Amino acid sequence: MNSVILRIAARHLTLMLLLASVILLLRGHNAPGGGFIGGLLAASAVALRAMACGVDDARRLLRFDPRTLINGGLLVALSSGLPALFSDQPFMTGMWIVPELPLIGALPLGTPLWFDLGVYFAVIGFTLTIFFTLAEAPGEKQT
Amino acid sequence: MILSGILTVFLLAALAPLLHRVLRNKTGIVLAILPAGFSVWIVWAMVGGASDALPLESWEWVPSLGFVLSFRPDGLSLLFALLISGIGAIVLVYGGGYLKGHRDLGRFYAFLFLFMGSMLGVVLSDNLLVLFVFWELTGVASYLLIGYYHEKEESRKSALQALLITGAGGLTLLGGIILLSIAGGGFSITDLVSKAGDIRSHALYLPALLLILIGAFTKSAQVPFHFWLPGAMAAPAPVSAYLHSATMVKAGVFLLARLTPVLGYTAEWHYLVTLAGAATMIVGAVIAYTQTDLKRLLAFSTVSALGTLVMLLGIGTELAAKAAMVFLVVHSLYKGALFMVAGSIDHEAGTRDVRSLRGLIHVMPMTGIAAGLAALSMTGFPPLLGFISKELMYEAKMQAPDASLLILTLGVAANALTIAVALMVGIRPFLGKADQVPAGTHEGYPSLWAGPLFMGFAGLLFGLFPDLIAGPVLSPAVAAIRAEHVALELHLWHGINPVLLLSIATVILGVALYALREKSRLLAGTWAPPQRLRPGAVYQRAVAHLPALAARLAGTLQSGYLRTYLVIVLSAFIVLMGTALLRLHAWPVMDGFDDVTPFEWGLVLLMLAAILVVLFSRTRLAALAGLGIVGYGIAVIFIFYGAADLAITQILIETLTVIIFVLVVYHLPQFTHRSPNATRVRDGVIAVFSGGIVTALALLAADVQLFPSIAESFAQKSLTEGFGRNVVNVILVDFRALDTLGEITVLAVAAVGVFALIRLRPLKKEEGK
User: Fold this and answer.
1) Where are the alpha helices (DSSP H) in chain A?
2) DSSP-assigned beta bridge partners for residue B68
3) Phi, psi at residue A106, to the nearest 5°?
């Protein structure tokens, strides 16, 4: 698609959308959002960039191959279950620490957040794997 | 004690090849110590009268499935265990001599122990599922044993044939066992025996009986499954001796005996089992009579003997049960001995053709004595145990409740043929002048004749002193079949009575048949059924056609077209769920329309309009846009009901789906031609029905609550235990995190699949160029 308006809009929108996706991810535990939704939004942002500026540009923005993101996301999600094992609990039992931080106050940090981060990356990874694969697929255009 | 004994046998199976490297020629004798010791322990237990008092041992294995490793050492189990371990010890010694210097001898010991352990498991199990597991293990072990000379194609074929036939029977047996456990409420044989009355009047009795009988008949080579047994003699002689005398083929007989108190004593059992047994008895005897190869003669006479045993169990009287148990011991002794003798002759003289074997007694005296004793026991000659057994059988057949005259006639015919076979196998090759002996024949190692001689003398000893085994060994076995106390007395001399006269007539007939054997062989050639109608040939044809059938079936069902799969899957869904719904007679109720706001009505109308667009659009892009509208409409409905998370997810997914679909459509051809009208109508009907059924199910399911809802509990615990106010997210990442992990793994696999499909396709095209 060769549209100047779309291209310029996409350049600015992508970063904002990615930021929004991170906010969605982090606030998900208490308000609508979470890793799955955040990941989908981030993937949409990259997809928008790819449609406006081409797949190569989007890949540069992403830095990682989407398949690496799938692997990384799955590993992160899986590893969030391990702390429970080390403290004699069933696999994937949620473990929490609530440190007192200056300015913010008590901040609950737990393995579910860690897990959500894994989901976030995995969702970005497999959505974009499918998207890039199809967008880059060689083949004659049928009319 | 019993479990550890069986485990020790399996352990030895694993260790045998290593032991063989150290012990070399002595391996057989050393390894035989364990089974010999086990059989001595059994005899000690039986003579001590302990067989009733031995404790039932049980260990939970998979209790939720009723899998309990329990062992019941009653009379029947112990009798079989005695034969298995005792003859097993002899076969180990014999095998060490027979296969001396063979490359794979260590493996032979391993297979034999595997087999022995499996058989012991079959006969000692009190749990039918455990019995089945061991039963299948015997099939695997026999496959390995029959295919021992694996370089030969014939060995491999025979092994596979035995495995296929008995394995198929094993599957029906499993079905029968499951039906039986439903009828009887469990897998424990002890419990089933106590519930026998309920089981026999249960609706599942007949199906269970039929399935179990097929399993037992295939294992014990009953007509028309008899053909695999002679094929199994492609195995080395020690294996044949073991298979035919004590083990695998008797497993079917054992199962029938074991289950007689549960399934027996009904008209169905009586007719089916008696008929199969009688047919097998006479068919086996007739075929055996026309053979000239030592091992084939013996193999078919085993078929006949197995038929006799099955028939006796079918007759079902107390006398028949006694006769069956006595004959079991007699047959094991003489058949084991004769197979080992046949192996020795083959080993030394290099031929198994009875027509060219003469005068062997001059060079193989010890083998000759063993063969003579065994053959005389086989003919039922006094004072051997075979004589007592034959008299008992005649008596049992005379007193059979139905068709006793027919059974008796068949029995006399089969016995006369057996006598002729016994003379051909065990007597004739040893008679004659010394100059008729095939060149180079001489007596084998002691390990080759010691075992058969021992078994031959055992037949003589028990014939002269039948009380040695009647009370301690045989009575408890008969009692287990009858499920009541039974006193068994055996006498060599019954006085002059009809049975004795019948015996004398049989001997005369048998000797006459022996004299006529050459002529009848010619006659049999003209009478035999055409080759292609024999069960063995039918099996070969079936196996040969199987791959083509499988290919056609798979080709039809797995066409590679998504549309075909959808048609099959959805049609199956419609038929299964549709019949279930029709049977329920619970029609979904549609009410509550008053609460629907005008706005919601508008949304629904919009979505319906979008669906019409999807159905009737001329381009794919328009259809996609229509689908997108339906998806966004659902998202709006989610928002109405306050499911913000779902709405956001739905909108994002819908957006991405449309984008991705557009990318796919880009590569697809336009709608250049539409499917024929008939296909469209068919697809339309399938779509309407599956959609209608799903709607009905959804409406019905809203009213059904099988378990108390956990929604409340999740909502309560979300903040306190998951530290989150968004219940949906807490469920996803905390309460059901493992599910989520599974889901993202599935999605990852799907993405890799898409990647592979798209990226690998061009490669193929280039190769094509």
Assistant:
1) 4-27, 35-53, 55-62, 66-79, 82-86, 111-136
2) B60
3) -70, 125
**Residue B57: what are its φ and ψ, rounded to 5°?**
-100, 135
Per-residue confidence (pLDDT) for residue B763, from 0 to 100: 54
Could A41 and B653 be called an inter-chain contact, meaning their C-beta atoms sit closer than 8 Å? no
Alpha helices (H) along B49-152: 75-98, 105-124, 128-146
Nearest by CB to A130, from B660, B730, B737: name it: B660
Amino acid at B112: L
Nearest-CA distance B658 → chain A (Å):
11
Interface residues of B toward A, Cβ cutoff 8 Å, are: 644-645, 648-649, 652-653, 655-656, 659-660, 663-664, 666-670, 721-726, 728-730, 732-734, 737-738, 740-741, 744-745, 747-748, 750-752, 754-755, 758-759, 762
Which tokens in the block code for residue A91? Answer: 């696999």
Quote ipTM for the complex: 0.89
Identify the residue with better confidence: B439 or B286: B286
- Shortest Cα–Cα distance, A57 to chain B (Å): 18
Residues of A in contact with B645 (CB under 8 A): 32-34, 37
d(CA B365, CA B524): 34
Q: CA–CA separation, B755 vs B449, rounded Å?
A: 69
Point out the residues of chain A with pLDDT beneath 70: 1-2, 104, 138-143
Q: What is the sign of the dihedral through the CA atoms of B430, B431, B432 and B433? A: positive
3-state secondary structure of B62: strand
How much is the pLDDT for B140? 92
pLDDT at site A16:
92
Which residue intervals of B617-676 are DSSP H helices?
Answer: 620-640, 644-667
Q: How confident is the model at residue B269 (pLDDT cuts 50, 70, 90)?
A: very high
- The secondary element (H helix, E strand) that includes residue A96 is strand A96-97
Shortest CB distance from A112 goes to which of B728, B733, B745? B733
- Residue B49, token pair as written in the block: 């009268």
| Residue partners of B688: CB distance under 8 A and separation at least 6 | none
- Residue B504 burial (C-beta neighbours within 10 Å; 0-12, 13-18, 19+): exposed
Smallest Cβ–Cβ distance between A28 and the set B726, B741, B759 belongs to B726
Phi and psi at residue A96, to the nearest 5°: -130, 145
Which pLDDT belongs to residue A143? 38
Contacts of B741 in chain A (CB under 8 A): 74, 77-78, 81, 92, 115
How many other C-beta atoms are found inside a 10 Å radius of the C-beta of residue B644? 16
Question: Which chain B residue has its CA at the smallest distance from A119's CA?
Answer: B744
The Cα B724–Cα B733 span in angstroms is 10
Average pLDDT for chain B: 87
What is the full DSSP assignment across B576-612? HHHHHHHHHT-PPP---GGG--HHHHHHHHHHHHHHH
Q: What percent of chain B has pLDDT over 90?
A: 34
Q: Can you read off the two tokens belonging to residue B474?
A: 């045989």
Q: Is the distance from CB of A94 to CB of A111 less than 8 angstroms? A: yes
Q: What would the mean pLDDT of B477-482 be, rounded to a whole number?
A: 88
Query: Which ranges constitute the DSSP H helices of B264-364?
Result: 267-289, 294-315, 318-349
Query: Cβ–Cβ of B741/A108 closer than 8 Å?
Result: no
Query: For residues B513 and B421, what is the distance between their CA atoms, to the nearest angstrom?
Result: 9
* 3-state SS class at B235: coil
**Among candidates A94, A129, A134 on the partner chain, residue whose Cβ is nearest the Cβ of B664:** A134
Residue B769: pLDDT above 70?
no
Amino acid at position B441, single letter: T
A&B contacts, CB < 8 Å: 155
pLDDT at position A141 is 45
- The residue-averaged pLDDT of B492-506 equals 83
Side chain identity at residue B94, one-letter code: Y
